[in-house]
Amino acid sequence: MLTISRSIVLPENELTERFLRADGPGGQHVNRTESAVELRFDVARSPSLPEPLRARLLARRDRRLTDDGVLVIQARRFRDQGRNREDARDRLVEIIRAALVVPKARIATKPTRGSKERRLAGKSQRGKIKQTRSRDWSRE
């Protein structure tokens, strides 16, 4: 069981772990031990996630999310397989907790009179600068 919040708990059978050989330093047994962990979680088909949370997770532009809606996390930070497993699970929890926060709806507003005047003043000033350039070229 992986606890996300009080109401959301992911059972072990929804997580798929694959162990692979990690690159980088590892000592004598670097080519024999499979210490890196690839954790897969099917966001699109998980019955444990509420529908609004699932929609927010799938809407994220995350390169770790496949076209089928599977979240793939690779952990190879440590030399120890157990620590990499824990790291991958912690990162999954962080991603899901970040999606729990509902983004505040943006309220459309109109520009103020002062901001319109400042924008127009800036445009006219820029136009005057360009006008002076054109006169300089015509004299030559």
Automatic annotation (TrEMBL):
Record protein name field: Aminoacyl-tRNA hydrolase
GO-annotated biological processes: rescue of stalled ribosome
GO molecular function, one term: ribosome binding
PANTHER family: PEPTIDYL-TRNA HYDROLASE ARFB
Region: Disordered, residue numbers: 107-140
Key word Signal present: no
Pfam families associated with the record: RF-1
Regions crossing the membrane: none
EC number: 3.1.1.29
Superkingdom as given in the UniProt entry: Bacteria
PROSITE patterns named in the record: RF_PROK_I
InterPro entries cross-referenced by the UniProt entry: Pep_chain_release_fac_I (IPR000352)
EC main group: hydrolase
Keyword vocabulary terms for this entry: Hydrolase
Coiled coil: none
Domain Prokaryotic-type class I peptide chain release factors: 21-37
